[in-house]
Amino acid sequence: FAFQPGDTLYPKDENGKFIYHKTDLCATWEAMEACKDAGLAKSIGVSNFNRRQLEMILNKPGLKYKPVSNQVECHPYFTQPKLLEYCRQHDIVIVGYSPLGTSRDESWVNVSSPPLLKDPVLNAIGKKYNKTAAQVALRFGIQRGVVVIPKSFNPQRIRENFQIFDFSLTEKEMKEIEALNKNVRYVELLM
Ligand code: A2P
């Protein structure tokens, strides 16, 4: 979706309501294709697209480039199994945001869903490999082909988040983690 064009990122009216802008996502996609052709982008993708929206692009007459990626919330409590399968079938990489369950900032996060990194299963599996729950959650992502983009302001944790290539989770552990899915988003995008 788009907001009213202008310098304000999230424009609101006098009643505090967001001001949206009617756009045709297919026309926006064509503009992005032109950016790629102009050498302004190596690859182009989408974010927060569901299957119906992806189909709209993939079935667009005259499609020049498919989206290479779809960036969506993805982690052990929100595993996106159907969307992941659909994207696999169409060679679209899922880029998972909030792979650690967000910073739990109440201004934009649904904090009624429990903190991911306190999860007993993730912590128990981590103990076995001498890894943290964060590292297990990230490893779970990459092992199922999801690109993970964890965020940290802390140098030691940034380093920690890279140290996930020296162990692997068994099929049974992957299934155990998949079973943690609650189908609840932390990031509800209320706007
Ligand atoms: P901090 O910046 O203090 O490290 P997400 O990537 O899911 O949005 O999560 C970001 C949150 O997770 C931030 O609050 C960040 O805090 C915290 N975080 C990042 N890496 C780790 C880690 N390895 N262990 C615990 N918390 C982490």
UniProtKB/TrEMBL annotation:
- Which stretches make up the NADP-dependent oxidoreductase domain? 20-181
Kindly give the Pfam families that the UniProt entry links to this protein.
Aldo_ket_red (PF00248)
Mention one GO molecular function: oxidoreductase activity
The signal peptide annotation in the UniProt record is none
InterPro entries linked to this entry = AKR, Aldo/ket_reductase_CS, NAD(P)_OxRdtase_dom_sf, NADP_OxRdtase_dom
Question: Which SUPFAM superfamilies has this protein been placed in?
Answer: NAD(P)-linked oxidoreductase (SSF51430)
User: Of which family is this protein a member?
Assistant: Belongs to the aldo/keto reductase family.
Protein's UniProt name: AK1D1 dehydrogenase
Q: State the organism of origin.
A: Upupa epops
